[in-house]
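Continuing the batch. This is chain 6 of the set; chains 1 through 5 are on the previous pages. Same settings as before, nothing changed between runs. Recording input and output for traceability.
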Amino acid sequence: MSEFRLAFPACVIAGKHRLTAEDISLLRKHTFPEGIRTSDDVVAMLALNNSCPEKCPEWSSFFVEQLADFIVNYTYPQGSLDEINVAWLIRMVSTAGVVNSALELELVLHAMEISANVPDELRAFALDQLRLALGEDIGGYKLLRAVDRKGISRQDIDYVMRVLRGISDGGVIHAPPLTWSVLMQIAEETLPAGNHPRWADILSALQLVEYATVPRRSRWLRIVDDNFGNETAVA
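Output for chain 6:
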């Protein structure tokens, strides 16, 4: 397998200590003129994110919006998430189930927000980052928490409701099995006296929804290729 190499100007930008707004403009114009369209583009974005210790605010927006758009709107099924691109996203942003950074966690959340469908696996994965922060003091969400304590804070409530927004309706949270399970695990990590009052409201609003098991499809992650008019299989 040939070694992946960044093209100019990305290769020069990757060697910098800090990504600037000017760098983002160069990337938009020369490296990703059509946006993120291939798996190599994704690798390049991750390489840039990991190689530059300091980043301007424009990078965060560029990284999250471009990658989320690619995953949700450019890979199949277009406009939605399924179990295959969710598995790919989780592998991309985490190590042993732990999201590597706050920025990559925001990518997960934004992908959920723009998708017409969010599989139970991804919602449970996002909630599990709170459990990891509370119980093991690790992960991208732990880096975001303003208050380092075991109890559920107002910030944690906002995070949980952001994850659950798509399954909340009329004061009822219709929780499928994996989401339900992680919420119960989070509850076990805390003491009621140390939790924000709204946490009890969330737990009381939960309604377990048993969905029929959907057969897992045996396709690769497929990407639309406008240049060649066919579908490219990405391992």
